[in-house]
Amino acid sequence: VILIKKAGDGSKKIKGCWDSIHVVEVQEKTSGRSAHYKLTSTAMLWLQTNKVGSGTMNLGGSLTRQTESDASVSDASPHIANIGRLVEDMENMIRNTLNEIYFGKTKDIVNGLRSVQPLSDQRQQAALRQDLAAALQRRQAKGDSN
């Protein structure tokens, strides 16, 4: 079992914590020169931001993934090195997945719910678009009648 913890200190107005748990099962092959590794990993993420313009936002969740791999075992590549590579690759994969899922989706949802632009500006832009569309239609109608 491998436990990893990374805590943010809040120095950039962001507090957070990353905890990951990796459980490794090793089955040595009968030859003794290779082994089958089964890795089950869970990462738990928690973030809190507090900004004047957007207020407080809390985000948290977990993700569990599992992988299996065969690797040779020797003095140059012992179990600890093989397990280390597996855990490092899994941490990177989970981090990338969390980045896509949590941050990408959260950004899409927040952008859909909240507008940085004032409502009056949005209405003004919509009116301008309608005026332009009407002017183009009138211009097309004139061109068609000639």
TrEMBL record:
<comment type="similarity">
    <text>Belongs to the F-actin-capping protein beta subunit family.</text>
</comment>
<comment type="function">
    <text>F-actin-capping proteins bind in a Ca(2+)-independent manner to the fast growing ends of actin filaments (barbed end) thereby blocking the exchange of subunits at these ends. Unlike other capping proteins (such as gelsolin and severin), these proteins do not sever actin filaments.</text>
</comment>
<dbReference type="GO" id="GO:0000902">
    <property type="term" value="P:cell morphogenesis"/>
</dbReference>
<dbReference type="GO" id="GO:0008290">
    <property type="term" value="C:F-actin capping protein complex"/>
</dbReference>
<keyword id="KW-0117">Actin capping</keyword>
<keyword id="KW-0206">Cytoskeleton</keyword>
<dbReference type="InterPro" id="IPR037282">
    <property type="entry name" value="CapZ_alpha/beta"/>
</dbReference>
<keyword id="KW-0963">Cytoplasm</keyword>
<protein>
    <recommendedName>
        <fullName>F-actin-capping protein subunit beta</fullName>
    </recommendedName>
</protein>
<dbReference type="GO" id="GO:0010591">
    <property type="term" value="P:regulation of lamellipodium assembly"/>
</dbReference>
<dbReference type="GO" id="GO:0051016">
    <property type="term" value="P:barbed-end actin filament capping"/>
</dbReference>
<keyword id="KW-0009">Actin-binding</keyword>
<dbReference type="GO" id="GO:0051490">
    <property type="term" value="P:negative regulation of filopodium assembly"/>
</dbReference>
<dbReference type="Pfam" id="PF01115">
    <property type="entry name" value="F_actin_cap_B"/>
</dbReference>
<dbReference type="InterPro" id="IPR042276">
    <property type="entry name" value="CapZ_alpha/beta_2"/>
</dbReference>
<comment type="subunit">
    <text>Heterodimer of an alpha and a beta subunit.</text>
</comment>
<dbReference type="InterPro" id="IPR001698">
    <property type="entry name" value="CAPZB"/>
</dbReference>
<dbReference type="GO" id="GO:0051015">
    <property type="term" value="F:actin filament binding"/>
</dbReference>
